[in-house]
């Protein structure tokens, strides 16, 4: 899928253009997807339109329409390096069956991958940045060469897409065409069945919305089809889409504030809250309550997905001492400012059991506590208290210079002569 070199196409910055877009949206029936696409190709921006496709669960519907209207339309596929093998095979299946003549793969810059994601695990700690270097950055120079492009977005998919029109004007005066804007999930299924379109190989396995493999999970019966995308994270878009308000255009700048403070910054949290009834063999990126882990120990140990452990006051970390290496993160609950049992748990993890992974504090995490938490080995914080957030951002936490209960061998308790202190 070699990518051709295209000459830049200038786009006029005309206020009347916006009014024309509004008029276009009144011309078509809500379900006239093929009509919208045909008019866009023949009258709105002829010869200056491309499509970006994820080749996911719903992609066959829009690509089938493209094949009917203009099989030579340039189709770009973001080959992020993180796709399921089944998705890569699906690209070839649709290309062959629909007779699409102009499919091109877009790859991230190897220099960006080497610099920002050398181990390939950036998605675990900062999925926004992972999407940025693997999707947004590679795509921008491509879209700049066209006057418009076609997407498969639909209103029902997310709250942000709830007002999506057939035609929209992006912030850089390009035209976005959304032929399936008014389609529901049932409409997509009906169209796929009516035209006997090939199904994505993972769809029957419960993957109803399919993106990169690490950030896509199976959707349970009755769940929203996109519930499996970035599950548990305050993230709904990868960063490549735009609407009138800019809410979709800049999701990383929107109000989806991160609450996990780690390595000097608030970052996206790959872990989601534990839900009662979760299947131990299928759980992933959740902090399993310690009693639940003990009750289903064998199943959790056999589970191949990353897991965390939740330790609440009264739980004995000694009970899971032999299994601590199983957990990518251990969360210690501080239910109130006055409950200090979590400090003891953290010290046990670090000093007795030599646990070297993420130890996070959650609950009543306030700025006066944080220096003490850090002294005990806590290296991540879930912070929702606004003054504490600002104190962390501005690096103005209180200091602890006097110790009555020292940690390790370097702190000297008040009133002790250092040369008499026993080192163990």
UniProtKB/TrEMBL annotation:
<feature type="binding site">
    <location>
        <position position="130"/>
    </location>
    <ligand>
        <name>[4Fe-4S] cluster</name>
    </ligand>
</feature>
<dbReference type="GO" id="GO:0043866">
    <property type="term" value="F:adenylyl-sulfate reductase (thioredoxin) activity"/>
</dbReference>
<feature type="binding site">
    <location>
        <position position="131"/>
    </location>
    <ligand>
        <name>[4Fe-4S] cluster</name>
    </ligand>
</feature>
<dbReference type="Pfam" id="PF06073">
    <property type="entry name" value="DUF934"/>
</dbReference>
<feature type="domain" description="Phosphoadenosine phosphosulphate reductase">
    <location>
        <begin position="49"/>
        <end position="217"/>
    </location>
</feature>
<comment type="function">
    <text>Catalyzes the formation of sulfite from adenosine 5'-phosphosulfate (APS) using thioredoxin as an electron donor.</text>
</comment>
<feature type="binding site">
    <location>
        <position position="212"/>
    </location>
    <ligand>
        <name>[4Fe-4S] cluster</name>
    </ligand>
</feature>
<keyword id="KW-0411">Iron-sulfur</keyword>
<keyword id="KW-0963">Cytoplasm</keyword>
<keyword id="KW-0560">Oxidoreductase</keyword>
<dbReference type="GO" id="GO:0004604">
    <property type="term" value="F:phosphoadenylyl-sulfate reductase (thioredoxin) activity"/>
</dbReference>
<dbReference type="InterPro" id="IPR002500">
    <property type="entry name" value="PAPS_reduct_dom"/>
</dbReference>
<dbReference type="InterPro" id="IPR004511">
    <property type="entry name" value="PAPS/APS_Rdtase"/>
</dbReference>
<dbReference type="GO" id="GO:0070814">
    <property type="term" value="P:hydrogen sulfide biosynthetic process"/>
</dbReference>
<dbReference type="GO" id="GO:0005737">
    <property type="term" value="C:cytoplasm"/>
</dbReference>
<dbReference type="InterPro" id="IPR014729">
    <property type="entry name" value="Rossmann-like_a/b/a_fold"/>
</dbReference>
<comment type="pathway">
    <text>Sulfur metabolism; hydrogen sulfide biosynthesis; sulfite from sulfate.</text>
</comment>
<comment type="similarity">
    <text>Belongs to the PAPS reductase family. CysH subfamily.</text>
</comment>
<dbReference type="GO" id="GO:0051539">
    <property type="term" value="F:4 iron, 4 sulfur cluster binding"/>
</dbReference>
<dbReference type="InterPro" id="IPR008318">
    <property type="entry name" value="UCP030820"/>
</dbReference>
<dbReference type="GO" id="GO:0019379">
    <property type="term" value="P:sulfate assimilation, phosphoadenylyl sulfate reduction by phosphoadenylyl-sulfate reductase (thioredoxin)"/>
</dbReference>
<dbReference type="Pfam" id="PF01507">
    <property type="entry name" value="PAPS_reduct"/>
</dbReference>
<dbReference type="GO" id="GO:0046872">
    <property type="term" value="F:metal ion binding"/>
</dbReference>
<feature type="active site" description="Nucleophile; cysteine thiosulfonate intermediate">
    <location>
        <position position="238"/>
    </location>
</feature>
<protein>
    <recommendedName>
        <fullName>Adenosine 5'-phosphosulfate reductase</fullName>
        <ecNumber>1.8.4.10</ecNumber>
    </recommendedName>
</protein>
<keyword id="KW-0479">Metal-binding</keyword>
<feature type="binding site">
    <location>
        <position position="215"/>
    </location>
    <ligand>
        <name>[4Fe-4S] cluster</name>
    </ligand>
</feature>
<keyword id="KW-0408">Iron</keyword>
